[in-house]
Amino acid sequence: MSAALRPEPRPGVLAIKAYVPGKSTAPTAKVYKLSSNETPLGPSPKALAAYRATADHLQDYPDGSASDLREAIGRAFGLDPARIVCGAGSDDLLNLLARAYLADGDEAIHTKHAFLVYPIATLGTGAKPVAVPETNYTANVDAILKVVTAKTKIVFLANPNNPTGTYVSFDEVKRLHRALPPHVLLVLDAAYAEYVRRNDYESGIELVATNDNVVMCRTFSKIYGLAALRLGWLYGPAHVVDAINRIRGPFNVNAPAIAAGVAALSDPAHTETARIHNERWLGWLTEEIGKLGLQVTPSVANFVLIHFQDTPGRTAKDADKLLTTRGLVLRRVEAYHLPNALRMSVGTEEANRLVVKTLAEFMGKA
Ligand SMILES: *Cc1c(COP(=O)(O)O)cnc(C)c1O
């Protein structure tokens, strides 16, 4: 019999620092939320209409296998629907992958400034998250390979990464994969893939298709503008899909999310408009903020990481304070080991211009 005087969570759970989402309020009449990488354009009107139509059937369970959605994803991306699993956001799928492949004593690798869901999901299983250094805020394949051991079961790679916005070329991803032992699952989290315009980038579909130890996670939360519905998907080898289907919630994706997801994929013009808006303003923000004497990490996603100065009055905390008084809500990133930076999602033209104007004032260059 255990000597504990009350129920105790499994080892690791109390080591988790709970995820703190981006703020969404400011003390102003108008608030510009630029803290969660949401699209300023919102979802496709078709997705909104499909979502609303489900209101007449709320008494019915959703299709537990999300067949329509998997087929729509299959058509849109040229994939076998049988090798797709949908989830309540990619968070759901990342946690399911951790639960299926990690146990006490195992290790999962992620890079130093990687998405916080990886260490949280890892610790929840009793396994140990191993963080490796990055180079110029970018994942470093050699640093990852250096810490792979017999205990390593998963390598999480956000590509592009949040909150840095940097990416790893497909050649480097393939080099990483080639050097991993076959028992290690490589999880490619491509939440921002739709935004990337680089010839040497791939989300990882080809690597999944041709290997037994690679999965790719995608989301409807970012370019598709459906974050509130919680919808993501993974593409994996048949044996991984089988394992995840055994442990996922039988109705883990709700009916409005399925309907909206299918409709969102039927409106590629809306997605393209969002991509073009992002391309224009990502470049503009990087250049204009750089001109103020602030360093901006080159980003291929829909956000920028802005580095501040160490002098009192010029820190990220000081900037955040001023921006907030103007209704501009950016993201503090101390939890990502970036104590003197802010992450800004690309917003509307109005929001983007107001941030640059406020930062110019902050830097004494207005
Ligand atoms: C936003 C984001 C996701 C998406 O999460 P959802 O649960 O699908 O909303 C996944 N990975 C990264 C790196 C992200 O930044």
Outline the secondary-structure elements.
Layout: E1 32-33, H1 45-53, H2 67-77, E2 84-87, H3 89-101, E3 107-111, H4 117-123, E4 128-132, H5 141-146, E5 152-158, H6 170-179, E6 185-189, H7 205-209, E7 214-219, E8 232-235, H8 238-247, H9 255-265, H10 268-291, E9 295-297, E10 303-307, H11 316-325, E11 328-329, E12 331-333, E13 338-345, H12 349-362
Parallel strand pairs: 1-11, 3-4, 3-5, 5-6, 6-7
Antiparallel strand pairs: 2-8, 7-8, 9-10, 10-13, 12-13
Helix pairs in contact: 1-9, 2-9, 3-4, 10-12
Bound molecules: pyridoxal-5'-phosphate.
Pyridoxal-5'-phosphate is lined by residues 37, 89-91, 115, 158, 162, 189, 191, 219, 221-222, 227, 232.
Description of the structure:
With 366 residues, the chain is of the alpha/beta class. It has 2 domains: 118 residues, Aspartate Aminotransferase, domain 1 (Alpha-Beta Complex), CATH 3.90.1150.10; 222 residues, Type I PLP-dependent aspartate aminotransferase-like (Major domain) (Aspartate Aminotransferase, domain 2). Helix content is 36%, strand content 16%. The chain has 12 helices and 13 strands. The strands form 3 sheets. The chain has a 7-stranded mixed sheet, with helices on both faces. Strand 5, helix 6 and strand 6 form a beta-alpha-beta unit. Helix 3 runs parallel beside helix 4 and helix 10 packs parallel to helix 12. The model has no long low-confidence stretch (mean pLDDT 97). Pyridoxal-5'-phosphate binds next to helix 3. Pyridoxal-5'-phosphate (PLP) binds next to helix 3.
